[in-house]
Amino acid sequence: MSSSVIKLICPNLQCRKVLSVPSHARGKSVRCRACGIRVTVPGKRAPQIAQPATTDDSQIIEATTETTEQSEAETQE
Question: Which domain of life is it from (predicted)?
Fold first, then answer.
């Protein structure tokens, strides 16, 4: 079992205490000891897949050109 701790801030603007909750509380509701408000602990984030960097600027130019051509066609109508 993981013993990591999740830290979050109480959403009550008059409280704003830092809450430390165990990682197994993800997705559950906990109570702030300072003000009593119920706080839902965020679930695990989905891993983000890194996108390869594009070095081909022609895609950017084409997108800009298409938009310009479409604008010109709409203006002529």
Answer: Bacteria
Is residue 16 domain-resident? Answer: yes
In a domain, 18, yes or no: yes
The predicted model gives 34-49 an average pLDDT of 85
Task: For the chain, list the strands marked E by DSSP.
Answer: 5-9, 18-22, 29-31, 38-40
Mean pLDDT taken over the chain? 77
The two tokens of residue 34 are: 């300072």
Q: Which residue, among 42, 50, 51, 47, has the nearest Cα to 21 in the 3D structure?
A: 42
Model pTM?
0.51
Give the domain extent around 31.
1-42
User: Does residue 9 have a pLDDT over 60?
Assistant: yes
